[in-house]
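Dear all,

This email documents one entry for the complex benchmark we are building for the journal club exercise. For each entry we list the sequence lines for every component of the assembly. Then comes the predicted three-dimensional structure of the complex as a token string, followed by one or two observations. Please use this as the template for your own entries, and keep the labels exactly as they appear.
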Amino acid sequence: EAGVAQSPRYKIIEKRQSVAFWCNPISGHATLYWYQQILGQGPKLLIQFQNNGVVDDSQLPKDRFSAERLKGVDSTLKIQPAKLEDSAVYLCASSGKAGGSTDTQYFGPGTRLTVL
Amino acid sequence: AQSVTQLDSQVPVFEEAPVELRCNYSSSVSVYLFWYVQYPNQGLQLLLKYLSGSTLVESINGFEAEFNKSQTSFHLRKPSVHISDTAEYFCAVSVDTGFQKLVFGTGTRLLVSP
């Protein structure tokens, strides 16, 4: 079974530029998560999708971050415009059940973003 | 709101020695507890989880963790570590709201040397 795929693996941009990350979850997984992991910190949930609907985006900086999950499969996370403090690893995860509290989340390898 | 504290940012240990990685949580309601491991250049993988029942949970590669409600702890232990256990370990908590929202600690880097 293929795992969670993410691309690109690395991205370097200058501040005020735009960037987009892509995630392909495990086939059949209904729930998809995007996390931000800043160096020295644990992952922080940005947004959670249940199929193609948003369940939780309370920690997403909506003035610059956006995410979508068209057709309930792939997802993209966009930052526009980027700031220096957005430098982090962006992790995508998916789980098979209806996003229940006891689910196991399966993580992709992440995209490391450096904003100069 | 829930929070997780991993006081040790780095734990160096020699191969075949025992190790304990500490995790304390804060929550006003019942919790579910998780340990995830991140090997270099890889994504996080679930190591073990406590949902209910026996307070001692085990993983397939020899790690175990014990849920201690009175001390609000979920420490991870292994009696004899291998070089291949070198990785970052994250403790996480969620509560039963119908949807899972993991709150992670800052992680502990386990460094196993020969």
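Observations: The interface with chain B takes residues 3-4, 31, 40-45, 48, 50, 55-56, 91, 93, 95, 99-110 of chain A (CB under 8 Å). Chain A has a mean pLDDT of 92.
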